[in-house]
Every structure is written in structure tokens, then in C-alpha cells.
Amino acid sequence: MTRKHRRIPAGLLAVCLLALLATRAQAALSYDFVTDNNNGNYTVLPNGTATVNIFLRETLTAGSTSLLVAEDGLFSARLQVTRTTSPSDRANITAASRNPTNFNDFNESSSAAEIAAAMGGQAFVGGTRNLDSANGTPIITDSTTVRRVAIGTVTIQGGLVPLQTTTFTMADTTLSNDTLTWTTLTSLDSQIVARTFTVTTLPEPTTAAALFGVTGLLLVRRRRSLR
């Protein structure tokens, strides 16, 4: 019994091969959100504020090429910043704003009223770029494998109790297709990894000096008592 073999058209094979290569190239790219201090800790005085600049970061591996460069930056971006730990005197989000140079059309950032309604625990940051712009968003090149696009800022206000640390998480929003490239409007949302940063309230300088003085006095008294 002779088996018949169907020949696959060469054009279809070429399309499948290109799709496979594109998938592999895309897998060699990673995206996350990063702050201006590389997702570290911000320190504030009691009731003081810190402005946190947030970026979308692209990291290349395995000899891949930059999609941000190929797509001429972004058309839109939007992320959600959420307070994910609550110490006894927590820090709060008080303001959020898009980067007005990069996203000069629709503003998708939370208003002061919306942030207040969320009790300072959540805010959205981002917007869209005007389609009449000659190019997509500017790209910051940190190295041959790392690039960033500035999305916007959040302002965090510390509590009144010193030595309290609050954690905030930066993540893609629950809505789909918020972060799109410029040329072909490719969605990056499903590839973006959530990251965190922290805010710690420090003692007032006078309070810290007083505590240091008391500690020093106690040490001197202890040394004398041991003689």
C-alpha cells in the first residue's frame, strides 16, 4: 500500500520559519519597570516627600536586537503603582504624572482626587503620544543590552513615625494593550515583569542627634562603672 505525501508549499514554510525566528527573538527580550535608583529604597523625613521617576526597561539577551529601537520607541504606556505593605504609619502616594515630553497627547495618570479615593494606596501613570509626532518616544541607552523609556513619576509622602518602611509595586495594568510600540503598535503588556521599591521614614536630624547623644552618655557611664 503506497502512502501519499502532501507537499507543503515553500511559501508556507518560509512564513512558519519567520514566525519561529520572531518568537525566539522576542523570547530573548525582557521588559520590566525600573525607578531612577534601580528599584531601591527612598528615604524621607517625617511627612516629607520623594519623587520617584519610573521607566520601562528593555534588556537584551542571547544576541537579540532591540524592539524599542526597531519600533522607534513607544506610542503609549501605562502602569499601576500599588502600596503592597502597610506598616503602622505607612507612606502614601500623593501625586502621579506622565512624562509630558514622551506622552504629549492623552493623559492616563491618576488625578489627585482618584489617589485620595484610593487612600494613597494606588495610582496609574502614563499616557499616549500624539500621532502627529515625527517619532516615537525618545529611548535612553544605558548599555548595548539595556534601554529605557521614561513613563512618568509618582510622589510618595512618608508617615510621621520614624523607621517605618513601605513597599510599593510597579506592574502592568489589568487592562490589555496599554503599552504599545510606535511603528506597528505591538503590545508589550504581557511581557512586562512587576518590580518593587521601598520608602523609609527617617528620624528628624535633631531627634537623631539627641538619640546619639543619649547612647553616647550611656556608653560612658557603663565604661566608668566597669573600672
Task: Walk me through the structure.
The structure is a single chain. The longest helix is centred in the C-terminal third of the chain and has 22 residues, at 205-226. It is globular and about 50 Å long. It contains four helices and twelve strands; from the N terminus they run αβββαββαβββββββα. Mean pLDDT is 86; it is low at 1-6, 11-25 and 207-212. With 227 residues, it is α+β, with helices and mostly antiparallel strands. It has a single domain, classed as Sandwich (Immunoglobulin-like), CATH 2.60.40. The strands form two sheets. Strands 1, 3, 5, 7, 8 and 11 form a six-stranded mixed β-sheet that branches. Strands 2, 4, 6, 9, 10 and 12 form a six-stranded mixed β-sheet that branches. The protein has helices at 10-27, 67-70, 112-117, 205-226; strands at residues 29-35, 41-44, 49-60, 74-83, 92-98, 122-128, 140-141, 146-157, 165-172, 180-181, 192-193, 195-201.
Attribute tags:
Immunoglobulin-like; 6-stranded mixed β-sheet; disordered N terminus
Order of helices and strands: HEEEHEEHEEEEEEEH
Distance between the termini: 106 Å
- Counting H and I runs of at least 4 residues, what is the number of helices? 4
Largest sheet: number of strands, sense, barrel closure: 6 strands, mixed
Q: SS-based structural class?
A: alpha+beta
Radius of gyration: 25 Å
Number of domains: 1
Strand fraction equals: 35-45%
CATH architecture level-2 label: Sandwich
The helix content is 10-25%
Q: What is the CATH topology?
A: Immunoglobulin-like
Q: What is the 3D shape? A: globular
Low-confidence blocks of residues: 1-6, 11-25, 207-212
- Which CATH class applies here? Mainly Beta
* Count of DSSP strands: 12
In round numbers, the mean pLDDT is 86
